[in-house]
Amino acid sequence: MTLTLRNVEIDGRRGLDVRISDGRIAEIGVGLRGPREIDGRGGALIPGLCDHHIHLFGLAARAESVTLDQVAAATRSRPPGAWIRVLDYHESQAGELTRAELDALAPRHRLRVQHQTGSLWVFNSLALDALGEGDDPPGLERATGRLWRGDAWLRDRIGLSPPPLAPIGAQLAAYGITALTDASVTTDPGAAARLAEAHRSGALPQRLTLMSGGPLTAPADGAFAVGPVKVLLDDHSLPDFDDFVARVASARRQGRNVAVHCVTAAELAMTLAVFEAAGSQVGDRVEHGGVIPAEAVPVLQRLELTVVTQPVFIAERGDRYAAEVASGDQPDLYRCASLLAAGVPVAASSDAPYGSADPWAGIAAAVHRRSREGVRLGADERIDARRALGLYLDDPAAPGRRLRRVVVGAAADLCLLDAPLHEVLATPDARHVRATLIAGRVVHDR
Ligand SMILES: [Zn+2]
User: Fold this and answer.
1) Which of 20, 190, 279, 286 has the most CB atoms at less than 10 Å from its CB?
2) What's the CA angle centered on 422, arms 418 and 425, to 5 degrees?
């Protein structure tokens, strides 16, 4: 029940010992001893990191997927008729894909290809056959094999058992992550129950907060907390204004905040107009904030909206942004420093599997804002590494607003690093994570 972490650095103070009891920090001092001890060797002890926007089932499924250029190899290694799932496709790789191209690529397998945005699937003919006829969702075009925003229907039709979550739980623990907010609009009571079960079994040890499109009730044992209602916008067909206002009202009736997916400037403009009309509340969120024009920044501040950004996209997608986004609009991409300076609450996340799940890669990207090819995007939006780490340390119930700290009485959700914090932040990297504790239990020990 009791664990003592010895010789750690907390908030710049070295040589401290921390006694953990009943899942909480019971005492911080010098010369503390206990029956069970971990020698911190002078490394920093920080709150466990929180990923404020992640898609857990999508991330788990990624482990079983391939990229477009691995399809040929997959057709050789998997028996005819087997499913092959491709993630991360973008038209810059292979043009606009349709069913015919996929038939040529994999004539004897069931091939499905997901667009990098997650909003589009393309199927080959055998995959479409396997999905069956009738009851087609509005986003399905059989001639081209394309399905827009049809994940729930697809899951229903394929009936595949969900991928195991334990490898994801272990991977995230190795990054020092102790709390997760799943941002899937599709989370229904069934999906929520599977995540709760994974948490109870220890497969997914992190504390969970779940967004959802529809109603959701937290279980009595606290296996997950209910987060905001997620509103997913699609730039191809923005929703009816009154409809959107009604969705905000419905969230309020459920006693919930609203988190709106906003990647483009048009999506953000509509979102701000809806919050003006429906009223915003502290805790309402703009997810991504992919493009935020300068004039929208004071509006975000006035409406008290939190922006949950993904710094790692600048590194992972920066080369495409540099090529495709007009140079005049590039300063609007994934803003960070200008939001913080204007008093807009900001928190960070991965959006995994669409971005890397490694928060340390996100911290590094928030600091350097360089693409893989070394192009710097939005140099003025850079923040220092300490601030960048802080974007991952907030309470999941108050991203951008309530920093968690290593203090007596706090939950023992902790990340032990292998060096003092200033050294780690000079080269932010997950390799510095030595151990991760959730409610005082060691869930990762390198
Ligand atoms: Zn997302």
Assistant:
1) 286
2) 80
Token duo for residue 344: 């807009």
Domain harbouring 430, CATH code? 2.30.40.10
DSSP one-letter string for 107-147: TTSEEEEEETTSSEEEE-HHHHHHH-SSS--TTEETTTTEE
Distance 115 CA to ligand 1 centre (A): 13
SS3 215: coil
| Tens digits of residue pLDDT in 127-140 | 999 998 888 999 99
Distance CA 156, CA 136 (A): 12
Asked if 278 and 243 count as a contact pair (C-beta separation under 8 A), the reply is no
**Mean pLDDT across the stretch 406-421?**
98
Cα 8 from Cα 257, distance rounded (Å): 38
Compute, in angstroms, the gap from residue 320 CA to the centroid of ligand 1: 19
Residue 229 near residue 251, CB atoms below 8 Å? yes
Length of the chain: 446
- The percent of residues above 90 in pLDDT, for the chain, comes to 85
Give the total number of structural domains in the chain.
3
Same domain, 217 and 121: no
Predicted local confidence at residue 318, as pLDDT: 95
Q: How far does the centroid of ligand 1 lie from the alpha carbon of residue 58, in Å?
A: 10
Q: Within a 10 A sphere around the Cβ of 339, how many other Cβ atoms? A: 24
Separation of CA 194 and ligand 1 centre (Å): 19
CA 55 / ligand 1 centre spacing (Å): 6
218 is written with which tokens? 């937290």
Q: Could you tell me the distance, in angstroms and rounded to a whole number, from the CA of residue 47 to the centre of ligand 1?
A: 24
Domain's final residue, options 113, 129, 158: 158
Q: Helix, strand, or coil here: 287?
A: strand
E strand or H helix at 100, and its extent? helix 99-105
What pLDDT was estimated at residue 379? Answer: 94
With residues binned 3-state (H G I as helix, E B as strand, rest as coil), the percentages for the chain, rounded to 5, are: 35, 25, 40
Q: Are the C-beta atoms of residues 215 and 182 closer than 8 Å to each other? A: no
